[in-house]
Amino acid sequence: MKMLLFITLSVLFALSCSRVHFNAPSAAAKFEPSVENPKENQFMDGYNYSNGGGDRVRAVDYIPNLAEYNMDNTISYVCVTGIWLLYADANYNVANNAGSNYWVFGDNFCTDVPAGFDNMASSLRYTGAPDQWTGDTINLYLSPFFAGGEEYTYDDLPQLNYNDAAKSLIVTGCNAWTLYARSNYGGVCMCVFPGDSTKCFPGFYTTEESLGDLAGQISSVRKGCYCDNNKAYPDNYGSLTQHNFEMQKAKIPV
Known about the structure:
- By secondary structure, this protein is mainly β.
- It is 3% helix and 32% strand.
């Protein structure tokens, strides 16, 4: 019988894939893991057998390489609190934007990994606020399907660090955000939304097509919808499904 593997992760940083956010230091404290209410913190348990059997890895932060924890290409079942993204390649598919991925969210939500992604995960990370997955944030990714580098904020941001670079994004919380083509909330605008504003389910904009004319053109963002004539709803809008799998090679040329 295999020995149960239990791993609790400390904070991990990968320069090419690190989270970038720009807010006042006092506001940034909101993103520290909660000590008083640890059950509210995002975490994921990954198992190498279906129905939660075998070895386990517990993620409380980013894991750019599951091989370092002897769990590369082994995860078959997950239990999550929060919003978690799993990738077929190390470093969040940064070197292979056509790699497959899988995302899953909920409160203590457990499920078998889809057959097409079974035993494929090589890296994983959460999105949104680490201590409140239903909190309002916008998370922008430099490649389709949330691959590679990222930038996030929970406040208005008049100038993105990665200007004109986002090709996919995730809206968390209950409220809409407005994207702008120019800094300081100027130029062409578009409202983006959660998947369900009542349940505060995240909204997944997976590709450049999901973002329309603003794909690779976003320079500033602010919370709320201030562009009534241009609204784009997420790919999972109105869906109650709490996980999804993408075989990207069928969609994006390598």
